[in-house]
Amino acid sequence: MDPRVQWHSLPTLPKSPNVNTNESHAKKKNFKEVFQTELNNATQLVFTKHAKNRMESRGISIDANKWIEIENKVVEARKKGIKESVVITEDATLLVNAQTHTIITALNRNEAKSQIFSNINGTILID
Predict the structure, then answer these.
(1) What is the reported pTM?
(2) Closest to 106 measured CA to CA, from 65, 47, 64, 63
(3) Which CATH fold would you assign to the domain 45-125?
(4) Tens of pLDDT along 35-80?
(5) Residue 78, class by beta-carbon neighbours within 10 Å (0-12 exposed, 13-18 middle, 19+ buried)?
(6) How many angstroms separate the CA atoms of 91 and 24, rounded?
(7) Mean per-residue pLDDT for 12-19?
(8) Which has the higher per-residue pLDDT, 13 or 57?
(9) Which residues lie across from 122 on neighbouring strands?
(10) pLDDT value at residue 113
(11) Who's near 25: CB < 8 A, 6+ residues apart?
């Protein structure tokens, strides 16, 4: 053997711990479950602090069935590319950011009669 070449042994590496892949996969949610959860959360409308205060101070209340209808229409508006919309119901008018599912402010129908809304690219009418 050539004296210029020296033999060096490599240190032994520690063994990796035995991980049962079935257990780790069982703990994780599958993609479909996570996606459905996120999709459900994305359809729920969120109130800004300002909108909450306006609804309380103006005595605006909307029943659960009407909220579901509003949420569905906002999702539909978002799919059509609408960013800011006015939602007009029998009792209230809501300014909604359809992209973030956020209610920006709320007005009584009487207050909304004499208002001008700018930067709105969609209107949702709900009777």
Answers:
(1) 0.66
(2) 47
(3) YaeB-like fold (3.30.2310)
(4) 777 666 666 889 999 999 999 999 999 999 999 999 999 999 999 9
(5) buried
(6) 51
(7) 68
(8) 57
(9) 85
(10) 86
(11) none
pLDDT in tens, 81-109: 999 999 999 989 999 999 999 999 999 98
Paired tokens of 77: 């508006």
Q: What are the residue ranges of helices labelled H in 1-127? A: 21-27, 31-43, 49-57, 64-79, 109-112
Rounded to an integer, what distance in angstroms lies between the CA atom of residue 112 and that of residue 74?
19
pLDDT, position 5: 66
Encoded amino acid at 45, one letter: L
Measure the CA–CA gap between 116 and 43, rounded to whole angstroms.
27
Of the candidates 95, 100, 73, the one whose C-alpha atom is nearest the C-alpha of residue 85 is 95
| Residue 11: count of CB within 10 angstroms of its CB | 6
Tokens read off for 22: 């079935």
User: What is the length of the chain?
Assistant: 127
**What is the DSSP pairing of strand 102-108 with strand 84-88?**
unpaired
